[in-house]
Amino acid sequence: MTEHVAIIGVGQTARYRSKISVSLAGLVREAALEALADAGLEWDDIDALVLGKAPDMFEGVVMPEIMLAEALGGTGKPVIRVHTAGSVGGSTAIVAAQHIKSGQFQRVLTVCFEKQSESNAQWALSPSTPFRPHFNSGAGGMFAPVIRDYMRISEAPEDVGCRVAVKDRQHACRNPRAQLQLQDISLEKVQESPMLWEPVRFLEACPSSDGACAMVMVNGRHTESSENPPAWVHATAMRSEPSFYPWRNEVDPSAGRECARELYQKAGIRNPRKELDCAEIYVPFSWFEPIWLENLGFCEKGEGWKLTLDGATHMDGGDIPWNCSGGVLSSNPIGASGMIRFAEAALQVRGMAGDHQVADARKAMGHAYGGHNQFFAMWVVGADKPV
Amino acid sequence: MRDVAIVSYAQAPMQRDAGGLSDVEMLVPVIDRALSDVNLERGDIDFICSGSCDYLAGGAFSFVMAVDALGATPSAQESHVEMDAAWALYEAWLKFQCGDIDIALIYGFGKSAPGELPDVLSLQLDPYYTQPLWPDSVSLAAIQAQMALAQGRFSERDMAAVVADSRAKAVNNPAAQLKGSIAVEALLGEPTFVSPLRKHDCCPITDGCSVMILASKEKAKSLCERPAWIRGIDHRMESHFLGTRDLTVSSSAQKSAQVIEIHSDKVDVAELYAPFSHQQIILQQALALTERTVINPSGGALAGHVLMAAGLDRFGAAAQEIWAGRADRAIAHATSGPCLQQNMLAVLEGA
After folding, report:
1. To the nearest whole angstrom, how far is the Cα of A103 from the nearest Cα of chain B?
2. ipTM exceeding 0.85, yes/no
């Protein structure tokens, strides 16, 4: 017998930006305390702790759950640490949900974090490891060829990426948590920003951020402690595929496509663009919006960029707003970024997203990916308890 | 609770240095063996979960390439914990309880040889107050042993007896790294390494990997004559700050033992993940194990210690005792963190 899972607490650090003066424990506690307050619960009410982050080298602490558990009330409790590359925030939320769904736990706290100010992402993502050729690219250098390939296949106009950047940066101005608050953003400003990894410009890339995100998930019978409405987990899915094989399509990875198919099938969704009210999708470089629009079945292949150009994903007038929070493009504490997507989806269906709230949002999707476009985690949450 | 059983387990030979073999090259034959032992193919697996540590390979996302060992397509339901693979098993067990899966493949791997493991593990400590002092894992264990010796909880002779027993039992374990007959007196004649620990009190540095297959009640009986059923499983964390907990006991193992009701007097076999000889005694005392229980028939972690797989290996070794009919009821234990900070306990049964 499996149980219904409800999110009754969401917490995030006040604003995603460098917090070099805060300890790791202070960082995660800030988010956790806000989630507990939202849930109307205390540390002692929590049965288990599910932590996620990636990778450990960003802060220089091996398996940091070992030393952070106590700051999160984990002493004497089950504590588990998930690490699935960039998708980890989503995977961690799903593992936390499974703690409840399994019937083994009633109230679970899940926290993801990253403190990029402690290190240098370009360095940490370009390791010289034994038994492997050195790959000194960082994330931007790895994804730029994929983007170039997408532009070639889809025949998208050159300015699509810049327009995604403008949209997400406009959205970010409505979210006080977002790190980048670029009030005077314009297409020209993005186009004139320096080219980092051709075709990705500076303003088309995510920043380096510090931050933590937390959620309290409970068995559906225990939602009453929170003064706020719950978000209900309607479906979750996780899929992975290897980095390299000869027939692999990195632009439209089969793991992403199959993950979305499984998710929609479990959630009873036939047309995600019509049936979802909004989505928080992992877009660390602007061009990943059209790439994922196609991969996740929001449109036919080759049509993703048209949705972007038509304004379909914009909060103002779009029929399927994407990344109303400003997305990964506006804040990227890597290990937490996936969980922020999942948590923002929950805030939307709870009606708690503030100035970036989509009116009457009843059903929303959270998405995270990692590695070489190969690890995927997704969920659909709703305002209504699933039948 | 939905019944889940261990139906297959394969382990690479535990060796001091696997040389130029990559993680993927180590894993492929072991995955093949775990599958073929129960006539399964990769396509039969519903869920895959693994445990490993980036800091062993010295690079971020080191587990990513290991996914290559699973085969290319179709995409898999897959997850990873930056913990011993026993916790990967736990994540899979929860998924079984959700009713989502019927067959899961678990693997753990690690090559400790390329780095200086005791120093690497000191990076696991609190980075503000403890780590800057660079206490290494052996020195911390030595503090724990010294405290327990000073309190008279056991003697150095008891510790040597644990080592002699491990070496003797490991003779029957083809994967073991350290094995053989050696007298307690001879061990006590060895010089200390980090006092009061002698080298043989410490687990060896080992390269290797392990793979396990779990199955639901519906599937297990067709795959395995006598599946090792997981009747209870629980894990608990303790304080990280060494001055705030009693290092001479294992309160978390004790708590888990209560939660899953191990019934100390009815345990045929206990596979305890004790990286240091004295930690095995602390665990035996915490679980109140009696003479009846055979401890670590595989030789335990002192006979070979693949960091990130050694906890899963205890589940594998306990399951082997049940498959062979040598045990009806066994305990598997895993640990993580300095001085037994985090512990997992499971009860396995043959019927």
Report:
1. 7
2. yes
* Residue A152, C-beta contacts closer than 8 angstroms, at least 6 positions apart: none
| Cross-chain residue pair B90–A80, CB shorter than 8 Å | yes
Q: Give B267 to chain A, closest Cα distance, Å.
A: 24
Of residues A124 and A224, more confidently modeled = A224
Tell me the nearest-neighbour CA distance from B74 into chain A, angstroms. Answer: 8
Question: How far apart, in Å, are the Cα atoms of A263 and each of A256, A259, A367, B77?
Answer: 10, 6, 11, 12
Are B91 and A80 within 8 A, CB to CB? yes
The per-residue pLDDT for range B256-288, each reduced to its tens digit, is 999 999 999 999 999 999 999 999 999 999 999
Which token pair is B123? 């990076």
Q: Are B87 and B81 in contact (CB under 8 A)?
A: yes
Mutual orientation of helices B156-170 and B277-287 as an angle, nearest 10°?
A: 100
Least CB-CB distance to A67: which of B53, B100, B240? B240
Instruction: Say what angle helices A138-154 and A288-295 make with each other, to 10 degrees.
Output: 60
- Out of B62, B114, B125, the one facing A67 most closely (by C-beta) is B125
Show residues of chain B in contact with A58, CB under 8 Å. Answer: 60
**CB proximity list for A54: less than 8 A, separation 6 or greater:** A83, A84, A85, A86, A88, A114, A334, A335, A370, B60, B61
Please report, to the nearest 10 degrees, the dihedral formed by the alpha carbons of residues B170, B175, B180, B182 taken in order.
-60
Read off the tokens for A312.
Answer: 């379909």
Cα separation, A10 vs A28, in Å, equals 13
* A/B interface, count of CB pairs below 8 Å: 188
Residue A211 Rama label (left phi>0; alpha psi -120 to 50; beta): left
Global model pTM greater than 0.90: yes
Spatial CB neighbours of A104, under 8 Å, sequence gap ≥ 6 = B94, B97
Residues in chain B closer than 8 A to A23 (CB atoms): 128
Based on C-alpha coordinates, what's the Rg of chain A? 19
Backbone angles phi, psi at A307, to 5 degrees: -60, -45
For residue B211, give both structure tokens. 């793979």
pLDDT in tens, B35-84: 999 999 999 999 999 999 999 987 778 788 888 888 888 999 999 999 99
Nearest partner of B343 among B241, B273, B288, judged by Cα? B273
Distance in angstroms (rounded) separating the CA atoms of residues B224 and B38: 7
Looking at CA atoms only, how far is residue A278 from chain B in angstroms?
Answer: 25
Residues forming beta bridges with residue A200, ordered by sequence position: A197
- CB spacing of B60 vs A124 below 8 angstroms: yes
Main-chain phi, psi angles of A38, to 5 degrees = -60, -40
What letter represents residue A320's amino acid?
I
Residue corresponding to tokens 């929860």: B94
Pick B76's closest partner by Cβ from A59, A70, A240: A240
β partners of residue B105: B48, B213
